[in-house]
Amino acid sequence: MTALLDSFRLLIAADDGLRAQLSATNDTAAFLETALAIATRYRIALQPEDLAPLTAPDPLGLLQHEPPPLLCQGWPPLGWLPYALSATAVDWADFSGVTLDGGFQTIATGAALARPINRLLRCRMGIDAFLRGPPEGLRLPDGLVFHMSRCGSTLVARMLAALPGSYAVNEAEPLNALLRIARDSPEELRIAALRAMVGALGRRPSRRWFLKLSASSALDLPLFRRAFPGIPWTFLHRDPPAVIASQMKLRAPEFEPIITPPAYFGLPPDAADDEEDYVARVLARFCEAALAADGSGFVDHADLPDAFTSTILPHFGIGADEADAAALRNLPRWHAKRPDQPWSPDKAPSDPATKAAADRHLAPLFARLKAVQRGESLL
């Protein structure tokens, strides 16, 4: 059974036309019918039960942690994107038919890996081959979105993706992993790896695409600017007590010291003893990095959604027309992270510890961010 399925995999992997036929559907019954018809045509004696592993439910999303069934020596076809990275390999899947609408990339990855084609053909590439073999003409993003955390960045990513002919990649885990793993590597290697990974995420047919980074990626702004000197970037920020209060309700991985050690931010181990204070100190690192990068595309959460068309699009060199305006009109009415729910403003935080932590570590930085946003010199 395994030998027959492996033979079928190799047949499909080697033939662009057959692969396109199978990739064209997410419907299980249609996929099985097409697969069996192809197998019969090429005299591979597959039976329906042989293909059962390709359509079995995966409610816990465990598939993404299993080794891909194929090894690839070169970059896979257009439409395939990396979905995982380790110190030795990059894993790819077919994202055809998966909408990259600016929601978190983990959701898009789950949708991609649920497709029968990716049960059949996911592939793994060694890091050396990944760095050695990027094809010519990789499309770099039209804009980069950095942020302080919990300040409207997902809304901005969704609005960018809603522009006709556009898509947005939001906090892709392979990119996050690359920044962590290569942190102590030589700069030349880090830049080459970053260019390859970002280029890999841009391999979908579209007019333009945008990359929204995780909050901790602000620490790597110097690296991004050296790797992509001509690409405009923006940094979103927000009134610090509101950000701290949001993180205290549900912390992102950057703010959990058991996941991201304090040393990652240049902080001592005991910095995490006071929770509000620790969150404020990590946020301060992000703001300091943005200010040090000397950018001009700073945007306050309080100015959204209007700042999207008045500031972000012009900063990215994009003029919004009537079609763009129509596509964007209703997005801010819905929760960016939970688009099936209407958006409502957060209540102002009232915890004295939250305000005290913000005053200690973030108030002067927030004032400087606002000054840069207004175009004032900090000299």
Would you give an account of this structure?
With 379 residues, the chain is of the alpha/beta class. Among the domains are: 1-56, no CATH class; 144-165 and 207-373, 3-Layer(aba) Sandwich (Rossmann fold). 43% of the residues lie in helices and 12% in strands. It contains 16 helices and 10 strands. It has helices at 2-13, 16-23, 28-41, 105-113, 116-121, 127-132, 153-162, 173-181, 187-201, 221-227, 240-249, 275-292, 306-315, 322-328, 352-361, 363-373, and strands at residues 70-71, 80-85, 89-94, 101-104, 123-126, 144-147, 166-170, 208-212, 233-237, 298-300. The protein has a 6-stranded parallel beta sheet with strand order 4-7-8-6-9-10, with helices on both faces. It has a 4-stranded mixed beta sheet with strand order 1-5-3-2, sandwiched between helices. Helix 9 (187-201) crosses helix 10 and helix 12 (275-292) runs parallel beside helix 16 (363-373). It is elongated, with a radius of gyration of 23 Å. It starts with a helix and ends in a 6-residue tail after the last helix.
